[in-house]
Design goal:
This protein is α+β, with helices and mostly antiparallel strands. The protein contains seven helices and eleven strands. It has four domains: 14-63; 67-171, Band 7 domain (Tetrahydropterin Synthase, Chain A), CATH 3.30.479.30; 186-221; 245-282, no CATH class.
Length: 314
């Protein structure tokens, strides 16, 4: 009895091992290739539980989803001789597992070859366009050309290229520095030109203002001379009329004006003869001399007879 149970257990274990070696599952995101002694026997595209000959056949599971490809950054020379560091990526799917296995074998090998294909297509297509085309509305056409060339070469691996995009396209560091230096010198040249034009306009404005100032001053001086001459003429006329009416009063008025200007508040000291013409309207201290005449047409006053001090001070 015990021996029967032992044989039964061994049989069940062997059946389980054989069943696990002959059955496998394929899910919705996978496809399988059954190999027998390294030779492909059949391709499985439908998901589910599948069977194979145990210990003779093996299964290679391949992804049927869209896969990402990230090639290294490639430096390309454009048609206008500008250099660009292009960082691109691609998306692909395995359409023919049998051809993929025969040409590439594994996904790692396929990605290595696809990286070289993508970079080669980038150099060919971008080498025939300018930087302006990449930065303008022509960029989708350029991307389609790159995708078409990559796809035509990837078909021999059983792969379909879904999309190729440029993630980033930058100028090399040395090129960027030279461009920045050229832009800086160009801006400095424009700034110097603008300053020179400003200085020229400033000098023109100053010269025009100075000329207008000179003309205005000359005209004002001319007008003032004319007005001053007219005023002097009218003053002389009035003085002449006043002198002809009362000459003695005019002489008295002019003498008082001389006193006012000479004997000011600054302690002016004058040394004059008391009998001089300048003091002809001064009287003596006792009141015996003649005082200032009334503003009438009477005879001119006499000079004072009493001696006056030799100095007069205020």
């Amino acid at each position: 009895m015990n021996r029967t149970l032992l044989f039964a257990g061994i049989g069940i274990l062997a059946a389980g091992i054989v069943a696990s070696a002959s059955l496998f599952t394929v899910n919705e995101a996978q496809q399988a290739l059954v190999l027998q002694f390294g030779e492909p026997m059949r391709v499985i595209r439908e998901p589910g539980l599948k069977a194979k000959i145990p210990f003779i056949q093996e299964v290679r599971i391949l992804d049927r989803r869209v896969l990402d490809l990230d090639p290294p950054v490639e430096q390309v020379i454009l048609a206008d001789q500008k250099r660009l560091d292009v960082d691109a990526f691609a998306r692909y799917r395995i359409l023919d597992p049998l051809r993929f296995y025969q040409s590439a074998g594994t996904e790692a090998v396929a990605e290595t070859r696809l990286n070289a294909i993508v970079n080669s297509a980038l150099r060919r297509v971008l080498g025939s366009v300018t930087l302006l085309a990449i930065l303008s509305d022509e960029r989708p056409r350029v991307m389609n050309d790159i995708r078409g060339q990559v796809n035509s070469e990837a078909q021999r691996f059983g792969i379909e290229i879904v999309d190729v995009r440029i993630r980033r396209a930058d100028l090399p560091e040395e090129t960027s520095q030279s461009i920045f230096a050229r832009m800086r010198s160009e801006r400095e040249r424009e700034a110097a030109e603008a300053r020179a034009q400003g200085q020229e306009q400033s000098q023109q404005i100053r010269a025009r203002a100075e000329r207008e100032r000179t003309v205005i001053l000359a005209e004002a001086q001319r007008d003032s001379q004319v007005l001053r001459g007219e005023g002097d003429n009218q003053a002389i006329k009035l003085i002449g009329e006043a002198t002809s009416v009362d000459p003695q009063f005019y002489s008295f008025y002019r003498t008082l004006e001389a006193y006012r200007k000479s004997l000011n508040k600054d302690d002016t000291t004058m040394v004059l003869s008391p009998s001089g013409e300048f003091f002809r309207y001064f009287g003596d201290a006792s009141g015996g001399g003649q005082g200032a005449p009334a503003p009438t047409s009477t005879p001119a006053p006499q000079r004072p007879t009493s001696p006056a001090p030799a100095t007069a001070s205020q």
